[in-house]
From TrEMBL:
Stored PANTHER family: PROTEIN YOEF
Family from the record: Belongs to the EutP/PduV family.
Name of the encoding gene: eutP
Entry keywords, A to Z: Nucleotide-binding
Protein name: EutP/PduV family microcompartment system protein
Organism from which the protein derives: Blautia liquoris
Positions of transmembrane segments: none
GO biological process assignments: biogenic amine metabolic process
Highest classification ranks of the organism: Bacteria, Bacillati, Bacillota, Clostridia, Lachnospirales
């Protein structure tokens, strides 16, 4: 996997959606809570963004500007969230392929997971992955997606 060219992805989601924890899992780091305060580039392939950039309307422009450096836009939705921050058609503002990643599937019922997947599809995610960093599930397909064919 290390010799293959990977797509650069930007992770967009509300605070506590699991963006940073997912990065820690995929980098084989110990899982520990870490509040992302600024945009961070991880291994030159993942752009991790603070949840406030999505939550605060006046900061959303920073997501659009930062997304220019990404190949893929990833909307991250915690399976245990009631509701979503992604409006229908949200992906249209980026003009790039958008995917959805449901995190924390271990904390949610099947209905909550389906609701999260539907929120992401309505936002414009072309493909949706369901993951759990705690259980280590759903990452094989996601990692494969990021590798160039």
């Amino acid at each position: 996997m290390d010799n293959k060219k990977k797509k650069r992805v930007i992770l967009i989601g509300r605070s506590m959606a699991g963006k940073t924890t997912m990065c820690q899992y995929m980098n084989h780091e110990g899982l520990k809570y870490h509040k992302t305060q600024t945009i961070q580039l991880i291994n030159d392939k993942v752009i991790d963004t603070p949840g406030e950039y999505l939550e605060r309307t006046y900061m959303r422009g920073a997501l659009q500007v930062t997304a220019v450096d990404a190949d893929v836009i990833a909307f991250v939705q915690g399976a245990d969230e009631a509701g979503t921050m992604f409006s229908p058609g949200y992906a249209s503002m980026f003009g790039k392929p958008c995917i959805g990643i449901v995190t924390k599937s271990d904390l949610a019922s099947e209905k909550q997971i389906e609701d999260a997947k539907n929120f992401l599809r309505q936002a414009g995610a072309q493909k949706v992955f369901v993951t759990s960093s705690y259980e280590g599930t759903g990452f094989e397909e996601l990692i494969h997606f990021f590798e160039d064919e």
